[in-house]
Amino acid sequence: MLEKRMLIVPADTVDKIDENRGDMSQAEFIDFLIDSHFQKEKPSDGRYVSREQFQAFEQGMKDLFRSFLDFFLSFGLEIDQTSPTAEFEEFNNKLQGLEEKLEPEKGERRAKIKWK
């Protein structure tokens, strides 16, 4: 059987623990905080990712977006070299209609992607 002891902490600290612990008990939450603070390499149970894993994911997503952009640019250049068919013209007109519909109204903000 585990030995239990009492820890006396200020009431505002207990309130902070209760606000942030979610489904964990107070003891589990404090144990989690201590483990995450003092251990550099903690074996992951799959619920959390490390900073390095997140940065690798972020870089992978950027590379994926760049490859999509490269594909569509090269596909567009290839289509421009051939003579457009009626089907392509119809598709292009539909896209232009969608673009006009989706034009931002005044006061709306747009996000722009800057590639390095």
Based on Cα principal axes, name the global outline: elongated
Strand content: under 5%
Query: Percentage of helical residues?
Result: 55-70%
Q: How do the helices and strands follow one another from N- to C-terminus?
A: HHHH
Radius of gyration: 27 Å
Structure report:
With 116 residues, the protein is mainly α.
What's the arrangement of secondary structure elements?
Blueprint: H1 11-20, H2 26-38, H3 51-81, H4 86-101
State the gist of this model:
The mean pLDDT is 77. The N and C termini lie far apart (59 Å).
Defining key terms:
elongated, 116 residues, 4 helices, mainly alpha
